[in-house]
Amino acid sequence: MLQPATILDNYEILNLLGEGGFGRVWRAKDLTVKGREVAIKELTDPTAEHLEGFLREMELLATIKNPGIVTFHHALNKGQHLVMEFISEGSLRQQLHARGSVGMGTTKTLKTERAVEILIALCDVLAAVHAKGVVHRDLKPDNVFLQGHVVRIGDFGIAEVLRPGRRLGASGTLSYMAPECFKQELGLADHRTDLYSTGVILFELLTGHNPFSAQDQQQLIYNICFEDAAIPIDLPKWLQGVLRKALAKSPDLRFQSAEELKQTLEAKATPQLYPVALLKANQVFVTADRLFCRGKVSRALSQTELGLQQYTDHPRLMFTRARCLLVLRQPKEALSLLLRARKLDPGIQCEKELGYAHIENQDYGKAITCLTEYSRRRPDDLTSFALLMEALYLSGAYEQAMEIGGALQQEDVTFLNNGLLSSVLASDPKCGTVLFENATKRLRSIPDILRYNMLVLSKVSELENERLKTVLFYAPIPNTIMPGKNVRPKAKPLRIDVETEGKKKTTHTSETGFVSVGRQTGLDISVTTDRKVSRFHGLFYFRDGLYHYRDLHSTTGSFRGERRIEGDLPIVGMEAIRVGDTWLKVSY
């Protein structure tokens, strides 16, 4: 530990300048350069975390070349002592204390012109810092230094470099921390937290006190997050507007850059607190959301595109656009939008949509996590349980899927089918036929999906277990993200012309939303003469307004032109699919 008169390398320690949570700052004399004094930052708690902070500060100061940054000279003792430029005039806090302006219980303040002048200079330095992708995270009068009319920023000990996907931790001095720093969703914190701290500094320069003073920490945090600052009405109107915008609770409503704040101060202009573009985007969002809720997905998608052109970071527009894309089976783009929307606005409840997107992207573990959390909060939303059952089933967790299916099977035939299949695969598949027959006795008519699965289970002795899993049809829950549409919609009439070389053309029509194809007798389209067709070859099913074709991992495959069909193929209008030597020409 350093003490006055201690010799450290080429420096003689003179006196203590200040101390913080894990370090002290000493004034020292350079023994090699006559008349030069330096500030030495000493790490007093050399834990791995604190040493990392010291080293990070050293690296950041070395990369930011700007006259407004306190100069870093070099490090001693493997980074436990940082030798910095010494500013004899002291920090802004010390100068204000000398004037009796801040923290002295007086009402004396800086003149408005001088306060604005300091802030303009501070914005210049801050713009250079942010241009390097660095967020200071601890801006306050103690870390701002004045040398005449030159403003300097020091103490980068907890500064961070913003990188994609990196979340800022909750660090800093409470009185100067932005509201988003106290929230669990810390991904929202970025360079605009520094702009908030700059607003607090300006408030103190003009009023002589902090805008959110409190008796204890919890009350202080509450005030910062929920109370409005009492901006003096005797300040110029334009300056009141600057403070109101700088101290806005939402980062989106603050100044978006140090340059924007600087230009507003120089122009003495009253800033627009609520962006006009955001207002217009909100109007577009309302229209798009109404269209989506009425099932007009394509029109809603066009509206969201228009709105995001006007305001690129509107989370609600992103959310609605993602829902449209999920209906249109574009899960990768939808997932990207949902994650971005949730980062911008953690209040958006999109776990169900995220779960749906993860299922479509075959990331069943993340789907289960999202849907479990959503279902816990919204036990009244049966479709979230249906999606959870689907994710569990597809991940092979049949017993857990069976439990959910048992609770839901009274609601809809899709739930009944999926719950029964989970039960079959969780136990002995040979008992499946009896289970299905007992369950379907209460139905007036057996749906095609159940009839098909009963046929598959009747052949269980002839099928390998893995083949059984691919052939059984676990029905995707329809319209899981469409408001008010939690039951199976009526399918559109489907026409399939079946053409096999050397055979008479036949036509199959269906309005049930499910058609099975294969060589097995009893299927909807039974191609018994084509030996290249598997016994259970493929399925057509109706979901979210479209028919889809699924190849059941057949031996010879299903083809669209020359390309083999992998996964589920959406069918729009007319389509020709080849199975073996047989063509299925589909229209609806």
Integer-rounded radius of gyration: 34 Å
Strand pairing plus helix content: what structural class?
Answer: alpha+beta
Oligomer: single chain
Terminus-to-terminus distance: 83 Å
CATH topology of the largest domain: Transferase(Phosphotransferase), domain 1
Largest sheet strand order: 1-2-3-4-6-5
Mean pLDDT, to the nearest integer, reads 84
Q: Count the strands?
A: 21
TL;DR?
By secondary structure, the protein is an alpha+beta fold. The protein has helices at 48-63, 92-99, 112-131, 192-207, 217-226, 237-246, 258-267, 276-293, 297-310, 315-327, 331-344, 351-360, 364-377, 382-394, 398-408, 413-426, 432-440, 448-458, 465-471; strands at residues 7-8, 11-19, 23-30, 37-43, 72-76, 81-85, 134-135, 144-147, 150-153, 160-161, 494-500, 506-510, 514-518, 525-526, 538-543, 546-551, 558-560, 563-564, 568-571, 574-579, 582-587.
Question: Describe it for me?
Answer:
The chain is of the alpha+beta class and 588 residues long. The chain has 5 domains: 7-85, Phosphorylase Kinase, domain 1 (2-Layer Sandwich); 92-267, Transferase(Phosphotransferase), domain 1 (Orthogonal Bundle), CATH 1.10.510; 275-348, Alpha Horseshoe (Serine Threonine Protein Phosphatase 5, Tetratricopeptide repeat), CATH 1.25.40.10; 360-488, Serine Threonine Protein Phosphatase 5, Tetratricopeptide repeat (Alpha Horseshoe); 494-587, Tumour Suppressor Smad4 (Sandwich), CATH 2.60.200.20. 40% of the residues lie in helices and 17% in strands. It is built from 19 helices and 21 strands. Strands 1-2-3-4-6-5 form a 6-stranded antiparallel β-sheet, with helices on one face. A 6-stranded antiparallel β-sheet has the order 12-11-21-20-17-18, with no helix packed on it. The protein has a 5-stranded mixed β-sheet with strand order 14-13-15-16-19, with helices on one face. β5 (72-76) and β6 form a beta hairpin. α8 runs parallel beside α10, α11 packs antiparallel against α12 (351-360) and α15 (398-408) packs antiparallel against α16 (413-426). 40% of the residues are buried. Residues 103-108 have low confidence and may be disordered.
